Amino acid sequence: MEYHSITLEKSHRSIRDMESTPLRLPVLNRRYSHDDDIMTTDIDYFEDDLNDVILRNDRIALLEYLKKGLDPDHVFRSRERQDRLGKTILETAVTAGHKDIVKLLIENRCNPDLMYIININDYVCLLQPYKKKNHLKMTCMYRCIVKEDVDTIKLLVQGGSDVNIYDDRGCSALWHAVDLDNYQMVKAMVQCKRVDVNVADRTMLRPIHVASMRGNTKMVSLLISKGAEVDPVQLRGSTALILACRKGCYETVRLLILNGADPNHAGYNGHMPLSTVLQWSLDTRLPIMLLESGARVDPDLVKKCTQENLPIIKDHPDLLEILKSCSETPRTLKIQCCLLLRRTLVNCKVKLHLMKKVEQLPLPRLIKEFLLLGHLL
């Protein structure tokens, strides 16, 4: 019988444990070989059988392979089948949509983020693990995101998949899930212990920005509960509150304000939440709520509303009178002090929710409720 060998990278269960020194691996066939140095000519037949087991969703047959010593991180390595060369059996199962196979591999502690690239070195075909963080689009997770396969995503997260891996634009798996406006997918991903809900793409756009642009209040609430910063600034200087105001979603705007969003932050184009609402929305509840939460009214804003005849002012002329009154009449000293104290608490570097900060202050209950904008509830 003739033998030939193929030099490969050693397949480990953790990417960080992988060594760069290539060595020869044993490959299972129907009669498991314990020879660590060579691959028999049956390798293509074994891998054909293994591939068929996965494609026909034969969980029992795959379990037998695993009991006989098949590495759950096994990578297809036959050069005669270029269509699957370098693919892991998990990747094959995910592509085929066979959740039972995926679950079995996860239970056997496969590495859900393990990906290989083919490298030709000195006429030797090497399969090397891809270790860079920007390989999201190569992963099983990304395939599930595109198909919105939440059940498989739950399995991958359960198996330790890193949802902070990002693509060439800096968008993480969580970022994409939020962009799809898929709450169940986001909920599945934030169960990952290592999830970073504040990862931004190259334009400094974070998941909370995207959720606010979508007007998805439930998703914004979930992100905040998992530690999302409320007032980060994206490339053009806009906060999540400004983006929510542009969307015109009352509930999202209210949620952000209650969690400490600054109603007076100005983007690089000069727009604040109040001016954004007046330009893009017809809901009079929004400007009133912003005014009650401390939004300042500049005389130039009143002048702009008058000159440009904004739709919201045209439909509700009484709103213009309210804006004029706010720009001409200073707020009471009590309200100014409370708003200043609220801004100070929001900007405090102590990592506590605003509500917990307020509760620790020796103040009357009425003042605490005002600091928390209880009148907006």
Automatic annotation (TrEMBL):
Give the source's domain of life in one word: Eukaryota
Annotated Pfam families: Ank, Ank_2, SOCS_box
Keywords recorded for this protein, A-Z? ANK repeat, Repeat
Instruction: Please report the organism this UniProt entry assigns to the protein.
Output: Sinanodonta woodiana
Which InterPro entries does the record match to this protein?
Ankyrin_rpt, Ankyrin_rpt-contain_sf, SOCS_box
* Positions annotated as ANK repeat: 85-117, 203-235, 236-268
Specify the protein name.
SOCS box domain-containing protein
All residue ranges annotated as the SOCS box domain in the record: 330-371
SMART domains attached to this UniProt entry: ANK (SM00248)
